[in-house]
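Would you kindly consider the sequence and fold I have copied below?
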Amino acid sequence: KWKQHLTVIVSPVSKIHFRVWSHQTLKSDILLGSATLDIQETLKANNMKLEEVIMNMDLTGDKEPTDGIGELSVCLDGMQVDPDLLTNGDASSIRSSDQNDGSKAKNETRCGSVDSCEIGVFSENKGANTSDSPLIANGGFKPSRPPRPSRPPPPTPRRPSAPVGM
C-alpha cells in the first residue's frame, strides 16, 4: 500500500489529472491508470465547501478507457468559495474565502495505496494577497530542496616557468 501527503495549487475552476504509475527500479515505469477531478463540479456538489470531502474515482487505462483498472480515493479539505464569485465572477479572481481574511485554508492529500488516495492543498495568507493567484505554504514549512552540488575549487594559477638557459 502507498500513502502520500501532497501539496497541490488549485483554484475553484481547476481540474486535477491523476496518473497512477507502477515503478520498478530495473524496469520502465508503467501507467496503471488515470482519473480526473473537476474542482468546480465537486464544489457545486458540496455546497461550495470542501471539508473532508472524499471522492472515489475509477482509474481508467489509456488503451481501453472503458476498462476499470481500480479506484482512487481523494480527500479534499479546507476550500470554501463564495457561490456568487464562482457563478458570476471572473474565474481568474476567485479565491478561497478563508484566504481573503488572512487565515489558513488547506486541502490535504494523503495516498494510502493504488486503491486509496487522499488529496489536497495547503494555502496560508499572512498578509495582503494582491495577486489573483492563491498563496501556498506547506503547513507553514518551505518545501525542502535538494542540496546544491558542490563546486570544484577554482584552478590554481600557474607560475611562469623560468627561462631555459639561465
User: Anything to note?
Assistant: Helices lie at 39-45, 83-88, 97-100.
